[in-house]
Amino acid sequence: MNQQPSATGAPVSRREGRAKVTGAAAYAAEHALAGRVHAWPVPAAIASGRVRAVHTGDALALPGTVAVLTPDNAPRLATADDPTLQVLQNDRVPHHGWHVALAVAETLEAARAAAQAVRVEYESGPHDCVLTPGDPAVYAPETANGGHPADRVRGDFATAYGRAPVRVDVSYAVPPLHNHPMEPHASTAEWTGGQLTVYDSSQGATTVRQALAALFDMAESDITVISEHVGGGFGSKGTPRPQLVLAVMAALHTGRPVTLALPRRQMPAVVGHRAPTLHHVRLGAGEDGVITALAHEVLTHTSRVKEFVEQAAVPARVMYHSPHSLTTHRVAALDVPSPSWMRAPGEAPGMYALESAMDELAVATGLDPVELRLRNEPDTEPDSGLPFSSRHLTDCLKEGARRFGWSGRDPRPGIRREGALLVGTGVAAATYPVLVSPSEATAHAAPDGTFLVRINATDIGTGARTVLAQIAADALGVPVDRVAADIGSSDLPSASLAGGSSGTASWGWAVHEACTSLRELLAEHGGAVPPGGLHTAADTTGRAGEPVPYARHAFGAHFAEVEVDEVTGEVRVRRMLGVFAAGRILNSRTARAQFIGGMVMGIGMALTESSTVDPASGAFVENDLASYHVPVCADVRSVEAHWIEEEDAHLNPMGSKGIGEIGIVGAAAAVGNAFRHATGVRLRSLPLSPDKVLEAMGERATADANPLTA
Fold first, then answer.
1. What is the 3-state secondary structure (H, E, C) of 560-574?
2. Would you call 407 helix, strand, or coil by DSSP?
3. Are 82 and 271 in contact (CB under 8 A)?
4. Chain segment 378-393, per-residue pLDDT in tens
5. How far apart (Å, rounded) are the C-alpha atoms in residues 93 and 50?
6. Residue closest to 237 by CA, chosen among 342, 338, 347, 147
7. What does DSSP assign to residue 338?
8. How far is Cα 611 from Cα 201, in angstroms, rounded to an integer?
9. pTM of the model
10. Catalytic residue numbers?
């Protein structure tokens, strides 16, 4: 084989693109198996208590109804690690929206009608569902999400902070947020004898199979989970969700294939959400802006079903020089749905607070916000003391400032006006850890000169098929169009889930090793492939995911320009620019799309996305796309993503870092900082909605008009 131009790095189009836009790609709910029926869940209408009775007679009398599952007749499940999957097993109602029954019918419309005809009697109990700092339910967890220590202390924060010439003491609030992928959580289940086949909208079919085997007391070899095409997840499909278990239970109960696609209004209650976070940030610094003391204390909520603690103070342990540091997490167990992962969990809300506080420190010291960050670059990771495998945050800040035109910025707030519009610019830094997990892969060479790599990776819209083929092509030394990638089934070699920006780094490692071995095997055969082909396998267990003597992170910098309408209170992002250092970029087309997608989610976090829990009912009020506003094209004008060419030999054979999540980290802070520069007003709770803007600007105008009473 002749040496080919590198396939990795090239802007190769997604292989499944045509199938998706033409409708040929089948998603989880689109497998019309023979005899298939449909299911529709019945959500609980109380926040806490128990089900006294489920009346199914009216539902069963409707045309097309096949069955109604309740805690009285549903199949029994074995105890598993995730209690959110223990559906229809008892009469307990831990939160509003918990599934208390399931209607199954011949058509989707009939299933919905049957579910609406089910009548449930409840015995309500007292409930507490609003996060407040003084709640007696607040406690100190052992760890935060990801196994991070809940608390970390370095030096003597209190003394150093008290002695600091410049001090910032601020609080921020991020509301509950919802993932809302375009494809709802859906599953199609079919039993054939003792074999179970499931088509699931999931970020990891291997994980789904493991959960089903435990719940239904089966051998994993008797279960096949297929997640070939997934219409987004943003973390909410990272672990199995209740619709999967309900579909399998209904298929077992009825003896027919069952499809269950969650209604969008039910999703916020059962598929996870980004928990609200209250942040208290204190920064102590010298007159030169160099930080001497840093504290980030976080309060969040979890459910009474399952503990999940948003690790929002963890980024403060990584970012800046701080010899004296205090970072803590506290959590309140409430009668709310179980929170879970949402794109860049911990980092997204945590960096909003930290980077907003850094902007406030820049104001307090009179320093340029970019310069302030440059002055606080650490030599090693502050928390662990480990050297960074690579850290090019300064390059991102400098290159972003150059591209954005930062040097021409007037630092004075509220100066730039265009009629009723105030215009300002802001900056924020970004970070995300490098995560990698063991995976297995095989590679096959056929006599016709083509190659096939097989791995149970999941493409959640990121272009995984394409990038894995590029990695394989480079390892084999052949053109990428001679390589096919088979992914998305638990019958393939086991792989980690698509989460934590770890997918390509994990799967690519195994694919690279399998293809490198295959290339060596081909060389032993003189390049000739026997009639049966040649086959190799790789397993990165014991290497991928093992501790290394380096702190490994991706970094980036966001720059935003916003306009604020003084009359309506509307805030719009005119332009946004991000520069990232994320190792070697494996596909420039799909990488740019991932960076921009994260930045757009950051715009939504800053300006439009918000959810609230109704204190009376315990329900999320904003439970659909009409009331929960994700950014649309009209909200997104100019968004640019660039990157630093970064070489890092301490990652994986490709030298790549994850890119799916770092785009959202810091983006909301950049928008908020730009708002402050435009108006001179600092809003410390998201989103920056017109009502908050008008109220804050009105208060500022009153204070300016009456300085003695301000």
1. EEEEEECCCCCEEEE
2. helix
3. no
4. 999 999 999 999 999 9
5. 5
6. 342
7. P
8. 24
9. 0.97
10. 661
